């Protein structure tokens, strides 16, 4: 009997909890009200809460390649060079100035003096040498189990084919890089977040744990990481850029669901959100307490053909299908106008973009004609497996819906497709193996503002099967792209890339679909946020009005 | 009773071993390469191969299984492939977050479900009966995802009564001691914080608790109706006991076995719903921990995470069975 009474007691207690929540309207209202008030007045707010879709995988910039990890690392580490805010133009950061030898093989950097790592140790030439040796030497004692320096390998060549031969400290504030061969985008590459300089002492002391407690020279000091929940950064009060950062604290929260994230922004629980769904654009615009921030377009969403399989090894078939996609209709329907129709793999904002290339126009008769020329007067036989992305990406918010529209268009020229959307990890695996899919949808966001990062990385024969999921190989193109890597004159490089785009257009290994403008939303009183085309920006200029 | 408990505990061993085999085979049957997902789309082929080698993923599956079991017997759940942190250490805060959420959800579900069911049975065919059964019907058929977003829209966005995401106010964080924030704030006597933490709990636990509440309400009602018609209730009434005592004391006790069963089953089922709720409300719980692990093919985390959940499920069943035995002594002699 007693047991029974205690159960009843627990139930009543539970009810009290539940009711106290529902009943106390005034209290809740007041609190929300004061929140609002505090942000509207000339603000003393010095904490930014940012909401994003996913968590970081690691906080050590050099061992990751995913955007979510790099965003945080970017606040903690400085590289020798950096991109000017909002662009991909290179300027000095930890290196104040530099000299390049005439043969393009020696780079001498003058380092900024008086800079300290967050742990109080001095930043100097030895620190730079330490970091580059760590990335360069496959047997480095500071390459911890399971780590790989993928960006170092892909930007400066894998072991055995390294671009960087040696990094040497001339004196405490001078570093000399000797290269094995000239590399045109060398400075562009050095400015990437992945080559942020970490404190050698912290790496030595923390070892494996450095990836959870990073120490750099950046504007913010790493404070705490609650996985899948939040990362807290605090102001580096002795940051070398005078007067920065303006904020005292930045809390980056992972809120996976797009709508929930937007709800949290509207409710004042976060100040800034990434990846606004185009569907929410109208409701954002009607809310005067919020503002829209547009990230410069630096990506491409595309439909790739699997050239390993028949009949997609036939260029006529690929061209025929290229005529059968109504890109503008897709943009109008699913991108709320926040995208432009793509002609080339390269976004138009990049130098080297060939604007004299004409796109395959949407013309179903021409498509049928080309199919007939290729020997398929009645359309393609069988059913084509069409891989549509199961996840939302900045370059493709809803892959499945877009695929359905394309499917309907293909049907009109006698090409039957079945859409498949396996889970993301499987999707990437399958696309890379090229066994199951006939056509697939994917995209890319540029890392460093160099055309090489799109054209060579995605379409050169060297990139099979790493990122060239189309298995597209063209020797002429390979010659142009590798030639452009060795050329140091940007004008000449631009020419080579323009020629390369002509070949790619003719061969049509992809149907480039869109270049999107990724959207962010923030409270109206948040100022100084300048979105970067690479997707990683400093939070140091942000403040609240 | 002791031997009954012991017998039940022993049965758990083969069940759990069976679980490890099933989970292990399923995970290894999922296509998708951990190295690819961990290192990302932009990683090189060599580094992926090196990682696979390091993780022992190139070994035959039975070798992987036995080395996993070997560690498990030593109490070592292994370490996450992605973060390199021992799982036993990593999973604790997630478990606490989920525990807090499920307890709150169950308290909500049990209180409202049981009472609605009792009153509906007591006042059968009254307006209360019709309405509560209609609500229960809607409750069971409501997708958690939709319900969660609706709650956010109404109670956070429109009315500003409650926060829409997370476990606490990030501008004024709670110091974690046990990771159960309700408990932590009570221990440290921060009553304002306690209120904030409870406010954060309300929307997700209502979203998560709605389906169990509806199921419990319907089960309580039908079970009560059955008991209310029986002889001993008539006797009790004839003795002149008040209606309240008859219903809550005599009838409810006898109607409670099936209700306990549903409560147990629903608590287990909550663990499934928790993934969705945790996603919508950005609740850093074990559901999302496993979900993230699945997306990145973090085998050890998936294995251990599911194993722990299975363990909890089995434990809940055990507790329910023991409660039966306590409520109805005949059961333990069967």
UniProtKB/TrEMBL annotation, chain A:
Alphabetized Pfam families for the sequence: SBP_bac_5 (PF00496)
Keywords: Signal, Transport
Entry annotated with the keyword Transport: yes
Top-level taxon: Bacteria
Presence of keyword Signal: yes
Signal sequence extent: 1-20
Domain Solute-binding protein family: residue ranges: 89-462
Family (UniProt): Belongs to the bacterial solute-binding protein 5 family.
Protein known as: ABC transporter substrate-binding protein
Native source organism of the sequence: Paenibacillus segetis
UniProtKB/TrEMBL annotation, chain B:
Taxonomic superkingdom: Bacteria
Entry's transmembrane regions: 9-30, 101-122, 134-155, 201-220, 259-281, 301-327
Locations listed in the record: Cell membrane
ABC transmembrane type-1 domain location: 95-324
Alphabetical list of CDD domains matching this protein: TM_PBP2
One Pfam family matching this protein: BPD_transp_1
Keywords: Cell membrane, Membrane, Transmembrane, Transmembrane helix, Transport
Annotated signal peptide: none
Alphabetized PROSITE patterns for the sequence: ABC_TM1 (PS50928)
Family: Belongs to the binding-protein-dependent transport system permease family.
Native source organism of the sequence: Paenibacillus segetis
InterPro entries: BPD_transp_1_N, MetI-like, MetI-like_sf
Protein name (database record): Peptide ABC transporter permease
Keyword Manganese: no
Membrane topology: Multi-pass membrane protein
